[in-house]
Q: What sequence folds into this?
């Protein structure tokens, strides 16, 4: 069972992360709409702008996924299931929860999963975890 003071601390951290992320997304949306209104320039400028828009969409997907993970962690806190590994049912160490407060699995299950599915992309938090020689855009074979 996770301590109440620890849960309050984690919930506060998750709510701050959520607010910071929403502020960041709002700022990006505002910037994107401002720049798209004033598109002038040659074909190279337009290509550069288009590439920047693509990157913003990709980052937007990551932000949406992170927001979803944060909301799920907050739901688990409210339901009383926070801090329990979804794979083995054992408690997740507080150190891991402090480092990644929206994690769903303990370090042992995460390590085992990475070993068993080395090529598979697993999203947990802001980074993709997979083979180091793969980019986040490559498909799993």
A:
């Amino acid at each position: 069972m996770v301590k109440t003071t620890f849960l309050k601390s984690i919930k506060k951290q998750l709510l701050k992360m959520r607010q910071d992320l929403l502020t960041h997304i709002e700022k990006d949306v505002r910037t994107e709409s401002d720049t798209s209104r004033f598109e002038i320039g040659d074909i190279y400028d337009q290509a550069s702008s288009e590439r920047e828009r693509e990157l913003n969409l990709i980052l937007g997907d990551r932000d949406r996924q992170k927001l979803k993970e944060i909301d799920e962690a907050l739901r688990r806190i409210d339901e009383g299931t926070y801090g329990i590994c979804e794979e083995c049912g054992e408690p997740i160490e507080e150190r891991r929860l402090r480092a990644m407060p929206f994690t769903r699995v303990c370090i042992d299950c995460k390590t085992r999963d990475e070993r068993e599915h080395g090529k598979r992309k697993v999203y947990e938090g802001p980074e993709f975890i997979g083979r180091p020689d793969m980019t986040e855009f490559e498909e799993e074979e």
The domain at 4-129 is CATH 1.20.120.910 (Four Helix Bundle (Hemerythrin (Met), subunit A)). The helical segments are 4-37, 43-79, 94-99, 107-116. Confidence is low (pLDDT under 50) at residues 122-141. The first strand starts at residue 122 and ends at 124.
